[in-house]
Each structure stands twice: as structure tokens, then as C-alpha cells.
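hi! just following up on the protien thing from before. the input was this:
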Amino acid sequence: MGLININKTVSILLFSATALFLAACGGSSAKTNSNANTDTKPTNVEVTTTQAVVRQIPTYFEATGNLASDAQTDVAPTVGGKIVEVNFDIGSYVEKGSVLIRLDPRDAQIRLEQAQAQVEQQRKAVSQSEAAVEQAIANLRQTQVRLGIGDGETFNIESFSQVKSIRAQLELAEKELTRTTRLLETGDVSRAQYDQRKSQRDALLGQLDEARSNAAVAVKAIDTARAAVNTARTNVGQARAAVATAQTQVDQAQKAINDTIVYSPISGYVSERNSDLGEYITPNTPNSKVATIVRTAVLRLKIDVPEQSVGKIAVGQGISAQVSAYPDRNFAGRIVRVSPTLNTTSRTLTVEAEIENVGGLLKPGQFATVRITQSKPEPAVMIPTSAVRTEGEINKVFVVKDGVANERLVQLGFLENEMIEVKQGIQENETVATSNLDKLGDGMIVRQ
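and the predicted 3d structure came back as:
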């Protein structure tokens, strides 16, 4: 009995082990088949689609360039002084004419007051000189009236009234003396009568000399009066010149006061600040600027055009610029200047374009890739930007055909609003997926 029981127990254990082995093998095989069925079953993804279209787009060639401010100015004072007020900092936006700094105006104010006092003193001198002129003119008029001559007339001594009267008497006395001399010779008059006539004639000669001397004194008086008038007028001119000189000094002193306030010459942003409160500055020292201001509302884009593309450049052409800070944005501009010569080292032509810096996104000094538009447009295959999936530097598009998504690598080009050019990889009228691109893979079944 014991032997039979042992054999029976062994048989049961072998049977159980065989059953477990078969069950395990069967389960593994079922699991493998289940996984195989799962892998081969395609995924169904719902997408929206659109067709690639052909549009006429501008043709262009690419170049590189650097952005620069439209205007840049270094602000420096024209007078020296201690800074008592600073109204800006780096990055500040300042309007044209706004106050940047103020200097201590006290020294300039003292000089202004001194100059103003000098002007008042010289004006008093003018008044005194003008009064002297009036007095000299009055004296001249009195002398002219006494001599009976007018302005600008030349006085003749022989026409002096006293001289004329005595000369007339002398002529009569000469005639009487001549007649008496003849009568004396004939004995018709006495010697006493002759001596009387001669004495009268001699007295009139002396009176004539005296009258002429008086007339000469009068002439000298007129000359003196006229000289006094001229001297007084000269003094007036000199005094007025002194007033003008003093007024110039006032103006200079006032300008010095005005120059203690330094204004912004343009509207723009402060890129450098070189002044601090309490600092003493003077325009006579090197690098005396207090700030640098750049205007960025409009930027200049300096483009280096290769020699082989020089013939494609003209003023007025449109350009499109991209910078690394905003890779998905294009900034439009227009060529406004073309250099007349090439750089002999780089063999490039420098041209300048102007770009409206809307929102102040662009900064002077940024490097830009530039597309310069040509006059003749060309056809291009265009698709929505939403149809492109970018992985690193690889751009992919999924073409949908017969319900299956086919992955295509594409080369992109011109971007216009929400449409982008496909230079290679897509044909016109092919249907592309525009949604759920992150869920798609090559060969997947899709629902539209």
C-alpha cells in the first residue's frame, strides 16, 4: 500500500507540472499575438486640411546688414559749472527741448548784473553827450545870427557889416583927400584943411583894420562853435558805441546763464550717461559730454550687397528684414541711399534702408538678414504656416492622400502674413494637414 501511494503522488505532481507548463506557454503565445495585432492596427487621427496654392510673390535676393539709429548726438555743455540737477538716466526717453541737466548759475548771474550796470553807466554818458551837442548847436546858432549867416554858409570878412561901412567911409575920405591935395597945389585950400582931410582918411584906415580884426574873431568863434558841435556829436557816437559794447556783454552774460541749462537737441533714448549731481564739468576738457541720445523711431539698416548683385539695387526698392530676437517677424523698409563706391576689401556695396521701428522692438547694433525685393514677381507654392511642423532645423509637412498622412521634408521661403512659400517638397493642389501635427506620423490614417 505504501509503494502504491508514493507512485500515485508522483504521478499527480508530474501531471500538475505539465499542466502549468502548457498553461504558461499558451498564455505567452496569446500575449504575443495580442501585441502583434495591436502594432499592426493603424492609428486614426482627426485633422483639418487645405490645398497648396500657387501665388505670385515678389522675388528677392538676400544680404546682411546692421541696424543703426537714424540720428545720434553727444550732448555737452557750452559753459563750465557745477551740476545741480540731473533729469535723465540710461534708457530714459527724452523729448526734444527737455531739460537734461542744470548747472549752478550764480557766477553767470553776477557777471550779468555787472554788465547791466555798465550799460546803465554808458547810457548816462550818452545822455550827457547829447545835452552837450544841443548846447554847442545853440552857441553856433547865436554866433551865426550875430554874423548874419546860415548853416553851411562861408563867412567873408569883407562882407562883415562894420567892415563894409568903414570901407565905404574910407573910399569917400580918399576922394576928399585927393581933391584937397589938388586944391592945395593950386593954393585954393589951406594946409590945415589938407591935414584935416588926411587925418580923417588915416583914422578910417585904422578903423578898417580893427573891423577886419573883429570879423576874424567872429569867424573864429563860428569855427569854434562848429568844432564844438562836431566834438559833441563824436562823443555821442562814442558813448553809443560804448552802450552797444556793454549791451553785448549783457547778452553774453545772459547767454551764459541760459547755457547753464542743457536741453535735449532731439527726441530719443539715452544710451550713455556721463554726469552726476555735484560734479564740476567744463567744455574745455576732453570728452566733456554729459549724455548720448539716439533716435530710434526710424532706424537705418546698413546693408552689405555682394558685388554680383550691385545691378539689382536701386533707391526706392522695398526690403524685408529679420533679426534673431524675433525670428517669426518681418520688418519692412525701403532703400533710401546707395553708396557710389564699393568696399575694395570686402567687394561689397553699402546701401542704407529706413525701417519704421514700430513698438521700439528693434535696437541699434542688431544684425539683420535682409531680403531685397525685385520688381518682377514669380509664382510660388504657398501653404498656411499652421501646416508646418518644425523640429530643430528640420521643417515637415504631412500630405494627406487617400486618408493617409505622408511625411515630407520641405524647404521654406517667403513668408507673407499667415502663408509661407514652399520651395521644395510640395506641389500645387496637394492636400496638407493643418492641425494635430504633433500627433501625426508617416503612414498614419487620418480623418478629415
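Residues 1-41 have pLDDT under 50 and may be disordered.
The two ends are 78 Å apart (CA to CA).
cheers
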